[in-house]
Amino acid sequence: MKPIHLQILISLVLISVLSCCTVEKRLYRNGYYVKKTSSRSPVTKYTKEQGQKEKKASNENSRIQTILPAFTDDEAAKPWASADTKALPKTKPSDAERCDSLFLKDGSVLEVKIKEIGTKDIRYKICDFQEGPDYLVEKFRVSSIRFSNGTRELFKESTPPQAKNRTNDAAAPKGIEKSTNAALALSFGILGIYPLVLIGSVIGIIFGALALDEFKKSPGRYSNENIGKVGLGLSIAGIVFWVFLIFLFLLL
Asked: Could you tell me which residues come within 8 angstroms of residue 222 by beta carbon, excluding any fewer than 6 positions away?
């Protein structure tokens, strides 16, 4: 058995330790904690204030979590999803939005950037290579243009003007042929004065009128235009001459 004075000493030590510390159960967590008592602030008052602060902090955290949106890990990693940055990043317009659409009459569509619309052709650049050279397309090959701002322009040219000029030149070669009507008009204009009085002049006027119609339809085609005009003039002069003589003869 242990001596009595040793037991008394151990009891005194335990009593002194228990008198200086307190063991209390935790309010919001499991377990107990040992705290040294203080004469300045009672244990009951400290634990009550501490519990109120912890409860207030817990309510504040729950209120903030309900207000703030929940982000996933991927969204939180994005710079635009942070709390400091609220606006989404602006995207630059694509090349297709900056390009013009060139519609050709053969059904093809070109994505280009129009530089100039002239009187006969259209100057443009390739949309994907705007630093490259300029290209030209004739206006009669284009049906319409849709610009990048949404407006549209229509073209009505159907045939190339050069093709029309070539057709007219081929159909009417200058100064190669001779008009038969012009030659007959001159012949009957002379004969209308004598011996075919009046009759030759009337026939000369008919052929002269036909010759002038040919000259009007095909300008520059015949080389004897002047002969036809002279024959028509002689025919008219022959009629005037003989009518004047007949009228004079009747008066006498």
From this structure: 175, 177, 178, 179, 182, 214, 215, 228
Q: Whole-angstrom Cα distance, residue 130 to residue 124?
A: 9
What fold does the segment set 97-154 form as a domain? SH3 type barrels. (2.30.30)
Strand, helix or coil for residue 23: strand
Helix (DSSP H) and strand (DSSP E) numbers for the chain:
8, 8
State the Cα angle at 161 between 157 and 167, rounded to 5°: 130
Q: Report the SS3 class of residue 78.
A: coil
> Strand, helix or coil at 25?
strand
Query: What are residue 112's phi and psi, to 5 degrees?
Result: -135, 180
Q: What CA–CA distance (Å, rounded) separates 150 from 127?
A: 16
Cis peptide before 219 (omega within 30 of 0): no
Nearest to 218 by CA among 184, 183, 177: 177
Indicate whether this model's pTM tops 0.70.
no
Amino acid at 119: T
- pLDDT tens digit sequence for 199-208: 999 999 999 9
First to last CA, the chain: 199
Coil, helix or strand at residue 32:
strand
φ, ψ of residue 117 to 5 degrees: the values are: -115, 105
Cα–Cα distance for residue pair 171/187, rounded to 1 Å: 29
Reported as a single tens digit per residue, the pLDDT across 8-36 is 777 777 776 666 666 666 666 666 666 66
Domain borders along the chain are 18-66, 97-154, 173-251
Helix (H, G, I), strand (E, B) or coil at 102: strand
Closest to 196 measured CA to CA, from 188, 208, 207, 206: 188
